[in-house]
Write a structure and sequence with these properties.
By secondary structure, the protein is of the alpha/beta class. The protein folds into 2 domains: about 5-50 and about 235-425, 3-Layer(aba) Sandwich (Rossmann fold), CATH 3.40.50.10490; about 55-230, Rossmann fold (3-Layer(aba) Sandwich), CATH 3.40.50.10490. It is built from 19 helices and 12 strands. The strands form 3 sheets. A 5-stranded mixed sheet has the order 1-12-11-7-10, with helices on both faces. Helix 8 (about 155-170) links the parallel strand 4 and strand 5 (about 180-185). Helix 3 crosses helix 12 (about 255-270) and helix 5 packs parallel to helix 10. It is globular and about 70 Å long. The protein binds 5-phosphoarabinonic acid. 5-phosphoarabinonic acid binds next to loops. The site of 5-phosphoarabinonic acid has 15 residues, from loops.
């Protein structure tokens, strides 16, 4: 087992010695140490209980992992396509792991090189997308993994209905659902578990104490990852390494806690936007995953005492260097309402030499002889420098490399950071009433039994007022 921390956290560009009044002094941080300690203690006290079951996932899944690896092996040998049906936390983790740990054009690789099923994550109910998927897969050789903790999410269950209908009808009546669908859901509640039992589907369970956005390290993420040939044990080991490296209440020795504190203090200073900007295409969807984690966990109307606080920090996804040619103008010169987190990678898995060939063009020739990894990393540092000179706060998470272990470390870093920050804000980090509200409204508008009163309420509220419509 690799036992090394492969991630560092540099918050120098959050400090006033670098960015003036937009930054923190050493004493600002010292004065807030008690806030951090309280958050750390409250997390440790309840660790593993209630909705913090995710913190134990690196340690308590031995039997499940055996089953996952066995199932994945079978899928890899029998199926040409593996499709995740899910949304939110049931999709963003699998997508982030796929992008981070597999070839960036995985599905386009020759079968012999890819050596496993093509992979798709369907996290929307756009009809064109569903039809497009059906155009490129062959259902006969596809395993679908329907993932929903609640077992009732409209998007996922409608996808399930469409796919199960196709399987029943189109496969000459010979196919069985159980040969094409695996369900990942709650063991004890929701509709999917009942359906799965009726249809005799292979099932994996999402533990009660693991919410959607904290679920990548349970079967939600582990089965798709294992099907892709990703070393899930190394992912969990990485998460454990980060967890153990963060087991102190001393902020100077606990990177996620320090990061949470700096973001908490930034929010107090009106910096209500958190930009996540990895400088690696492989980490592009980590920013999407983080956006859900940070936004849904911290965006809350009430604190734990029931007072209206309307807190949160709006996550913004960006990609280096691509967004240097779009959003960075705003980050450098726009309002002082953001903190930026860069994720850098020291060693890329492959490199590309920029060859000689345009010697007579001085303004191009300077690039020649360098590697693309040098260029992307230099641009990252140049951007951090530019932000610093504009007195904009940023921090840098640096990964030695992107592999299963460092990916696990990174996810655990962000989950701990989120839990700590929620504790500092004194909110319920693990619920999502604002998401449930939309889900319930959809049920009501689609006439789901039990939602009649909500339907009546909504009907009163929604009226087309022509006065405010242009181009009717
Ligand atoms: O984090 C959460 O709990 C949510 O975003 C869920 O992941 C999302 O709503 C999907 O829910 P479910 O897994 O119940 O289908």
């Amino acid at each position: 087992m690799e036992n090394k921390l492969k991630l560092s956290f540099d918050y120098g560009n959050m400090m006033n010695i670098r960015i003036g009044k937009n930054g923190f002094s050493r004493s600002d941080i010292e004065n807030a140490e008690a806030v951090a300690k309280k958050a750390f203690d409250s997390f440790q006290k309840d660790r593993g209980k209630g909705m913090t079951g995710w913190s134990e996932l690196p340690y308590n899944q031995k039997d499940i992992i055996e089953d996952i690896l066995k199932t994945a092996k079978e899928i890899r040998s029998k199926y040409k396509y593996f499709v995740v049906l899910g949304i939110g936390g049931s999709a963003l983790g699998p997508l982030a792991a796929f992008q981070a740990l597999k070839h960036l054009h995985y599905n386009e690789l020759k079968d012999s090189v890819r050596n496993g099923p093509k992979f798709y994550v369907e996290d929307n109910v756009d009809p064109e997308r569903m039809n497009a998927l059906l155009d490129v897969i062959d259902v006969n050789t596809t395993m679908f993994n329907v993932i929903t903790k609640s077992g009732s999410t409209s998007e996922t269950m409608s996808q399930y209905l469409i796919i199960s209908d196709i399987i029943k009808k189109c496969l000459d009546g010979t196919a069985k659902l159980k040969d094409h669908i695996i369900a990942t859901t709650s063991e004890n509640s929701g509709n999917l578990i009942k359906i799965a039992k009726e249809e005799n589907l292979k099932t994996f369970y999402i533990p009660d104490g693991v919410g959607g956005r904290f679920s990548e390290l349970c079967p939600v993420g582990l089965l798709p990852a294992a099907v892709l040939g990703i070393d899930i044990n190394a992912m969990l080991e990485g998460a454990a390494i980060m967890d153990k490296a963060s087991d102190k209440s001393n902020i100077y020795q606990n990177a996620p806690l320090m990061s949470a504190l700096l973001k908490y203090l930034s929010m107090k200073n009106g910096k209500n936007i958190s930009v996540m900007m990895p400088y690696a295409d492989s980490l592009k969807y980590v920013a999407d995953w983080y956006a859900q984690l940070w936004g849904e966990s911290l965006g809350k109307k009430f604190d734990l005492k029931g007072r209206i606080v309307n807190c949160g920090q709006t996550p913004v996804k960006a990609l280096g260097v691509t967004d240097q040619h779009s959003q960075i103008q705003l980050f450098n010169e726009g309002p002082d309402d953001k903190v930026i987190t860069f994720i850098g990678v020291k060693k890329f898995r492959s490199d590309c030499l920029i060859p000689q060939g345009l010697e007579k063009y001085e303004n191009v020739n300077f690039l020649c002889g360098h590697y693309m990894s040098e260029l992307i990393n230099t641009e990252r540092d140049a951007t951090a420098y530019a932000l610093m000179t504009n007195n904009k706060p940023s921090s840098m998470i640096m990964l030695d490399e992107v592999d299963e272990n460092s990916f696990g470390q990174l996810l655990m870093f962000f989950m701990l950071e989120t839990a700590y920050c929620g504790a500092m804000l004194n909110i319920n980090t693990f619920d999502q009433p604002g998401v449930e509200q939309g889900k319930n409204a959809t049920y009501a508008m689609f006439n789901r039994p039990g939602y009649e009163n909500l339907k009546a309420e909504i009907s009163k509220g929604i009226s087309r007022d022509d006065e405010f419509i242009i181009g009717k």
